[in-house]
Protein: TPM domain-containing protein
Organism: Selaginella moellendorffii
Amino acid sequence: GVNKPELLPRSYTPVIDVAGFLSEGQEGRIAQEIKEIEELTGFKLRVLAQNYPNTPGLAIREFWKVDDNTIVFVADPSLGNILNFNVGASVDLNVPRSFWSRLAGQYGNVFYWREKGEDASIEAAVAAISSCLREPPGPRACSTIN
């Protein structure tokens, strides 16, 4: 795999945008939402916006201290569907697997992000993840994409 730590920012941030999809304001809003999610749920959401092969790749694992409570959300249009998720084992126990494919289908399809923009896909996905993680656990948890 690709491993380019030189593409990582100098200081910690839960949002890394090496592709330039997000404005500074959007990055700030997403980072604030991520902070609230982590404080309320204990789950860590990390967002990497890239356009392969321009990616830090494996270097993000150590930078973000990825563990079982981490959701790594990679936004990369070169993969076709812009929304891709790597979900830790603890998250997998709390969020139905079907949620991730439904989320990608709604906001990550090529028609959505070409019409609305990569930034809109990323922001909509973060909002939907936030909504899902705040729901009480149960058989209907995360059954709708908000």
In short: The CA atoms of residues 48 and 74 lie 5 Å apart. The mean pLDDT is 94. Residues 24-41 form the longest helix (18 residues). The helical segments are 24-41, 59-64, 89-94, 97-107, 110-116, 118-134.
